[in-house]
């Protein structure tokens, strides 16, 4: 029965987590290398199984975008291996002394980073999440329970089997990495009930999936629902930079969470800039929707409704609003934004600092594309997701963010007076 | 109507939070000093109102313990003021650069600590929480909404009015500190619905209050349900130290969350130690309840049931179990404990380190009383609570823990390639 099977997995992970909490850095890094080696050794088998799943998905009429996400080609495969090896080279996120002192009575107190314990990753089809997530979890000493999309069930299972073999060869426990092989929603439902065994869930996928998980469990969830990212072009912005950043933020890739969705143009430069921006967006096949003032300057575009300001298009559409000053720009961003990534283009240090302080978002970009927000450019090495929550982790979720800490006090018979 | 009144408070706090996010350290510290001065100036009025509430509580037949918690005497009052002044002297929890680098393209990236935003504190009667919590929140640049127990409504309102006056005199916004003056459960229910305005709730009180809040809101909650604290006396423990630490952990104060509730004695030293421990506990009027093996050695004590191992007595009762080795001790603690504070008495560095690594608790004490776990001995200055959660904050909740961070990137037209 699937119910008890998921519980057995959760219990096994909890036991593995305890063993992992004592696993030295050298063993965890060796495991990552051996995981990559074991994957290399099943490469042909993996590509064959992946091809079968691609054919099946095509037969079932899945979209081209879905097929593309599902596919492992040689380049993707090499990238997956390189990420595991790269994580192995990152500094150890564990056993960092975060604070500490010796109190007046001689009690030695320190706060050190330790693994969270058991992490559940629930994701849609991209098989590279299987290896990325397992890599970051093992690096940070956590047991991981994977649950990928049903279209890639066999591919993910084989990836996991190889990684388990590598991890065990390095000396990690058998159940440090597990994957739920039972198809269907029921198994996910069971996973959500495993509070007491699972310390945190990280869902990756569409907003609906994430909402279903966050609202259906008592387990803490690290998540972002969407990325309604803004760029505010201040009155004093360099025009060329403003257009360049706006275009790159929107067009470099439209289907990603740090792509631009709403452009705010200061009233003082709107007349000069909006026609330039329109020409550039049109050349990039982006549909614009505007506020009333925008439409006075660009009469041929349709109106943006209240709903537009709340929408993450993930498509070649952009809402445009003229704002009167930085205060109103920040008001708009804090009201309609999702706290993911928001930027300003300005030459004024004062405006940049006000924007930095008062925009309530995980990432604030000053004269830089919103597309630069993420683990890569922030120097995190490898990430398993992005958080727009404020507690625990905000922004990219890398190995450090999969740790908690404990307070340790070494005494010699110390008592409370 | 109370419903809209709570929403207005929440909205005002959100606006104040934005202003606070730009408030310099000097202003926040000045506010703490002026808050203490303003309290000093209403001292007599405060003691009078507090006396009236004490009389009312007595007339209503409240317990002596409740009356004691409600009472502000001269000593309590001076302590409240001293805590505010002490918080002012702590290092700034804001604008700490937590990580950062300049990426290869010259993008300057840093991660800096910022306020959480709006914090709601829901607590039972102790009026010193009113000043302690407001102090830690203002220090960390957060707007705070207080909601104390109904018995101390007038006392807390006057404390808050004085603190508001002090904070405003220092230049902080009017609504940086607010208190909900509407009596009854309905107002708390409304407060729990204020996600979108309130960033985190910190309930302080009994387990029932905390459960009601955590399970009744979508706002993140920083909490601990209970403190089922353990002490494991290893086979090689120094007897005198073991007895001293056990007695201090249990008896120094029984009604607190870091008091000992279950004592685990290694099989190899049980025969020698249990009679000594019993004599010491009996002298301190502690009732012992034991496992089967304990009762073979101490035949006159009643059995500990399965329920006992799950119980935070907060009373002069202690459950005692004989365990065969450190592995089983850790198993017991991780299964029955609440992840608050657990200790070991041992002379072996190997056992101490295994215990430190594998006990999954916020605080791990080596040869020290469980009563030493807390903000004071850990050097945090002032705290608003304790967390047994693993995400965001674990253990004492001080000013640093009331911050989140944002990623800031300064570019000069930087684009994604």
From TrEMBL, chains A, B:
InterPro entries: Ald_DH/histidinol_DH, Ald_DH_C, Ald_DH_N, Aldehyde_DH_dom, G-glutamylP_reductase_CS, Glu-5-SA_DH, GPR_dom. It is found in: Cytoplasm. The keyword Amino-acid biosynthesis applies. Its main location: cytoplasm. The keyword Glycoprotein does not apply. Pathway: Amino-acid biosynthesis; L-proline biosynthesis; L-glutamate 5-semialdehyde from L-glutamate: step 2/2. Catalyzes the NADPH-dependent reduction of L-glutamate 5-phosphate into L-glutamate 5-semialdehyde and phosphate. The product spontaneously undergoes cyclization to form 1-pyrroline-5-carboxylate. This is Gamma-glutamyl phosphate reductase.
């Amino acid at each position: 029965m699937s119910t008890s099977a998921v519980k057995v997995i959760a219990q096994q992970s909890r036991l593995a987590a305890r063993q992992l909490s004592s696993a030295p850095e050298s063993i965890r890094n060796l495991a990552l290398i051996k995981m990559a080696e074991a994957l290399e050794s099943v490469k042909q088998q993996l590509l064959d199984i992946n091809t079968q799943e691609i054919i099946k998905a095509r037969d079932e009429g899945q979209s081209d975008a879905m097929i593309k996400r599902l596919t492992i080609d040689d380049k993707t495969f090499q990238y997956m291996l390189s990420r595991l090896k790269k994580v192995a080279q990152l500094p150890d996120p564990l056993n960092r002394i975060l604070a500490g002192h010796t109190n007046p009575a001689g009690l030695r107190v320190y706060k050190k980073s330790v693994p969270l314990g058991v992490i559940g990753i629930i994701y849609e089809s991209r098989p590279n999440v299987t290896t990325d997530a397992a890599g970051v979890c093992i690096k940070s000493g956590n047991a991981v329970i994977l649950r990928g999309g049903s279209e890639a069930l066999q591919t993910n299972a084989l990836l996991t089997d190889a990684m388990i073999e590598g991890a065990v060869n390095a000396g990690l426990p058998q159940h440090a990495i597990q994957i739920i092989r039972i198809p269907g929603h029921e198994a996910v439902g069971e996973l959500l009930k495993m509070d007491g065994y699972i310390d945190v869930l990280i869902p990756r996928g569409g907003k609906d999936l994430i909402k279903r998980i966050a609202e259906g469990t008592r387990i803490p969830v690290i998540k972002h629902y969407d990325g309604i990212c803004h760029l505010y072009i201040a009155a004093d912005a360099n025009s060329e930079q403003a257009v360049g950043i706006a275009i790159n933020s929107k067009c470099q890739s439209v289907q990603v969470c740090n792509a631009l969705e709403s452009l705010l143009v200061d009233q003082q430069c709107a007349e000069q800039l909006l026609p330039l921006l329109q020409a550039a967006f049109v050349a990039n096949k982006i549909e614009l929707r505007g506020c009333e003032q925008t439409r006075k300057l660009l009469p041929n575009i349709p109106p943006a409704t209240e709903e537009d300001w709340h929408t993450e298009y993930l498509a070649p559409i952009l809402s445009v609003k003229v704002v009167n000053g930085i205060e109103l720009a920040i008001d708009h961003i804090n009201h309609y934004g999702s706290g993911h990534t928001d930027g300003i283009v300005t030459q004024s240090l004062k405006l940049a600092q006000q924007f930095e302080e008062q925009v309530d978002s995980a990432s604030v970009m000053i004269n830089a594309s919103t597309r630069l927000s993420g683990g890569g450019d922030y120097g995190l090495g490898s990430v398993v997701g992005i958080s727009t929550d404020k507690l625990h982790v905000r922004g990219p979720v890398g190995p450090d963010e999969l740790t908690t800490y404990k307070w340790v006090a070494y005494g010699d018979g110390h008592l409370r007076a």
